[in-house]
Amino acid sequence: MSVTVSEDRYNKGIKHLETMNPHSFRNLEKALENVAPDMARYVAEFAYGDIYSRPGLDLKTRELATIASITTLGGAKTELKSHIHGALNAGCTPREIIEVIIQMAVYAGFPKAINGLYSADEVFQERNEKI
Predict the structure, then answer these.
(1) Confidence at residue 113, expressed as pLDDT on a 0 to 100 scale
(2) How far apart are CA 96 and CA 83, in angstroms?
(3) Which pLDDT band, with edges at 50, 70 and 90, does 3 fall under?
(4) In terms of C-beta density within 10 A (0-12 exposed, 13-18 middle, 19 or more buried), how is residue 44 classed?
(5) Among 23, 64, 80, 96, which residue has the least CB neighbours within 10 Å?
(6) Are 113 and 74 a contacting pair, CB within 8 Å?
(7) Class of domain 1-54
C-alpha cells in the first residue's frame, strides 16, 4: 500500500511537531477528540506538513515569526506559550523571544506586547530558563 499525499503531509507535520512541542499537539488532539478530531489533523497536515516544511526559513525563524504574529493577535495565550516552548526547542534564546515580543509593541500596542511578555515569563519560569 502506498502512502497517500495526506498521510505524507501528516507525517511531515508530526515530525516537526515532535521536534518543537509534542506535548502541545497531543493536548490539542485530546481537547478536540470529542468535538472536531479532524481539526488536529488539519493542523498537523497544513500548518506543519505543508507550511513549516517549506524551504527558505529555518525552524527557529519560523517560530520567531509565529510568536510575533500570535503576540499581535492577543487573546491566544495557550498558542503563544506553545510556540514559545517550540521556539526554545528550535534553538531560540529567551532574549530573542523577548526582543520579538517587545518589537510587537510598535505594531500591536503595549498591552498585547506586555501580555506576550507575561506568557514568555511563565514559560521561562516553567523551564527554568535564564534570561
Answers:
(1) 98
(2) 13
(3) low
(4) buried
(5) 23
(6) no
(7) mainly alpha
Q: Which amino acid is at 21?
A: N
Whether 1-54 shares its CATH topology with 58-131 is answered yes
Torsion angle defined by CA atoms of residues 15, 9, 68 and 25, in that order, rounded to the nearest 10 degrees: -50
Over the stretch 28-57, which tens digit does the pLDDT of each residue have? 889 999 999 899 999 999 999 999 999 999
Superfamily of domain 58-131: AhpD-like (1.20.1290.10)
Amino acid (one-letter) located at 7: E
Instruction: State the burial class of residue 116 (Cβ atoms within 10 Å of its Cβ: 0-12, 13-18, 19+).
Output: buried
Confidence of residue 4 (pLDDT cuts 50, 70, 90): low
* Domain regions of the chain by residue span: 1-54, 58-131
Distance, CA of 67 to CA of 79 (rounded, Å):
9
Q: How far apart are CA 61 and CA 78, in angstroms?
A: 20
